[in-house]
C-alpha cells in the first residue's frame, strides 16, 4: 500500500510503500511498536525533519555516484524516525529489507530503505562534500554543490565554518557568484550567513573578482557593483546582520563599505561613471574608518592585526600548524584590506579636492599599502615548506600578489 502523511507546516510528504509493522513483526524479532497500537508507522504522525535534494545531471559518473551516496547514506538516515532508524541499522532486518523492499519519499525523492552498517557504510561528511566540490566543473555541478549544502542543513548536519568558507570560495573561483548570492538569499536553508566574518570576506572577494578578473571592464564593473550592493542590502535581514550591534555589526565595517565604493570609483575613473555615488560611499567609508579606529595606530583593527602577524618571528611559530594558521589569518586580513586601500586610492583620484577627510584618507591609504607589502614578505617565509609542500602556499601568495598588482597604476601606492 502507499499511504502519505501530510505535515501541513512544511508540506513535506512521507510515504512508506509497505507496512513497517509487518516488516518488523515475526516470531523471532520483538515488535518495535507496542502491541496495543497495532499501527504501521506509515500511518503514525511523523515529525518533519527535512527533505532530500533533487540534483541536476552531473558532469562525471563519480560525481553522480557521490550525489546519490549523499542522499542515501548521509542525509536519509538523519531524516528517519527512531523506528525507521532501527529498521535500517539492526542487522536482523537486513534480509527482510532485501526480500521485501520498502520505499520512503522525502520531498520529491523516493529511496529504498536499505541496511546500513554505521561503521562501514556512512562516509565522512566533510570528505564527501570536499570531493563533490573537487569534482565539480559545470554550472549544473556547482548548483548541485549548493543543493548538497542545503541538504546537509535540512538534515540537521550544520556545516562547519571552514566548510562554508570552502563552498563560497570555490563558487567564486568557478565564476558562480550568482550561486553565492542565492546561498545568502536562502541563508536559513544553507546556513551561510554574513554574520560570519570569514564568510563575509569570501563574499567581498567574490564581488571584487567579478570586475578584477575582467580587467575592470565597464560591464563587469557594473555587475560587481550591483552584486556588492545586493550583499549590503541582504545584511539588513535578521538572518544576517539585521540584529547585530557594536563590533559584530559589520554593516559599518570599512571592508564592507569599501567594496561598492571601489566598484563605483573604478567606474568613474575608467569609464566616466557617476561620481555622486562615489561621494556618497566615500563619506560612509571615512566615517567607518574613524569609528573602527583606523586613524589611531594604538587601536585594534584589521590593519594592526595584520601588522602584528607580519612582525611575528618564524622562531615563535615552531610547528607547521602554527605557521599555517598565521599564514591564512594574514591572508584573510589582506583580503579585507585590499578593497579599502584601492577604494581610497581610486576615490582620491576621482574626487580630488572633494575627498572627505583628505589627510586621513591619504595617510590610511599609505599605511595599508605599507602593511600589505610587509605582509607579503612575511608570507614568503611562512609559506616555505620542505620537500615541495609549499606549492599550496606559493599559489595562494601568487594570487594575492596578483590582486594587489591589478589595482596598481604606474607610480601609485
UniProtKB/TrEMBL annotation:
This is Uncharacterized protein. It comes from the Eukaryota.
